[in-house]
Amino acid sequence: MAGKERHMYPGNNTPEGFFSYYHYILGQREADKIFCIKGGPGVGKSTFMKKIGEAMLQEGYDVDFMHCSSDNNSLDGIVIRDKKIALIDGTSPHIVDPVNPGAVDSIIHLGDYWNEEGIRKNRDALISNNERIQSIFERVYNYLAAAGKMYDNLHSIYEAAINHQELYRISAKIVGDELSHRDISAKQGSIKKYFASAITPGGFVNHINTLLDGYRKVYLIHAPVGVSSERLLNLFMEGAVYRGFSAEGYYCPMKPSTKLEHLLIPDLSLAFVTSNQYHTVDDSSISAEIVPVNLEQIIRYDAVRYLENILDDSETKMRELLEMAVYCLGQAKKEHDDLEKFYIPNMDFPKIDALRMELIRRFCRR
Q1: Is the pLDDT of residue 102 over 70?
Q2: Which of 68, 196, 288, 329 could bridge across to 201 with cysteines, CB 3.0–4.6 Å?
Q3: What is the mean pLDDT of residues 276-298?
Q4: Contact, 195 vs 250, CB < 8 A?
Q5: pLDDT value at position 279?
Q6: Bridge partners of 97?
Q7: Over 70: is that where the pLDDT of 95 sits?
Q8: Smallest Cα–Cα separation from 259: which of 151, 140, 138?
């Protein structure tokens, strides 16, 4: 029987630049082994990890696939959950280096399998290509920063309009229903942080539904963009962690350090998912009990009617700025694809395949 696969993003393109939650992928104390994969573009890092992940799935092990926000079809890492083994792309922009070499971490350098002389022949073109990519990403983050300001407009207007008493009542009822019969624990649960959706060259992509397989209950939160569901989610996460349950928090790319957007409590088989126009959740594919939570119903639109034009304009401008950021990401990907062409002909892929097969055998024996 094949294992279960999940998909998420450990890093994201955000108004704050590239934002990384890589240190949450697998902790040093919980990991059996962490492999940092080094090497340039086109050396096969993503394919190397993807094929290992797929092979371990077929062997019956559960695997998390960590996607790259700058390339929809590329991976930045995998976690073989049953084995507590992670393979992580350790190259820019998410530099990952061994923390406890030998004891936990090892480096796999795919640069050991390239023809350096062949690559150096394209030295000037390669450098120019990298410079163009860097320049385009500066534009990406300028657009995203401006979109973030428009998001701030939406958030502040909705914050003034929301019925906070009703929001607290909804939050308290959910906490009471799900946690009141659970005792406070002497040992707190752990928290991991990721992204379930990302701003990518292919637009706004989410993998939310892959995270919900096997859950018994899903609170499906409907809220306009800018309306805060994080207050409810933070309250519940805190209550669960104090009771010894571990949590997975999935954050919003527009507010990557503060806006909790989705929450999973695996030990309770309980999930909270926010659905809006940028990450719509397909509830028809969710087998769990679905409990709808409609936060739009507690917005007092009459209180901010005088700001209606600003609300509409901010939403329009944010969408346009995000679309331009996506366009620029597409341009950066084209340049990156060209960059890979300097490396691919100079790689010894049969030897890399042999290394991959040897690792799969080792993982299955552990």
Answers
A1: no
A2: 329
A3: 88
A4: yes
A5: 85
A6: none
A7: no
A8: 151
The set of residues, in sequence order, having a beta carbon less than 8 Å from that of 253 and lying 6+ positions away, is: 12, 13, 14, 19, 195, 197, 198, 199
Find, among 102, 330, 298, 295, the residue nearest to 201 by Cα: 330
69 HSE (CA, 13 A, CB side): 29
11-53 residue pLDDT tens: 999 999 999 999 898 877 788 898 999 988 889 999 999 999 9
Q: Contacts for 346-353 with beta carbons within 8 Å, 24 or more apart?
A: 346/114, 346/115, 346/116, 346/118, 346/119, 347/42, 347/43, 347/44, 347/110, 347/113, 347/114, 347/115, 348/113, 348/114, 348/115, 349/44, 349/113, 351/113, 352/43, 352/44, 352/48, 352/110, 352/113
Q: Compute the distance between CA of residue 276 and CA of residue 64 in angstroms, rounded to an integer.
A: 25
pTM above 0.90, yes or no: yes
Per the CB < 8 A criterion, the answer to whether 321 and 147 are in contact is yes
pLDDT of residue 97: 65
Residue 245 CA to residue 191 CA, distance in Å, equals 9
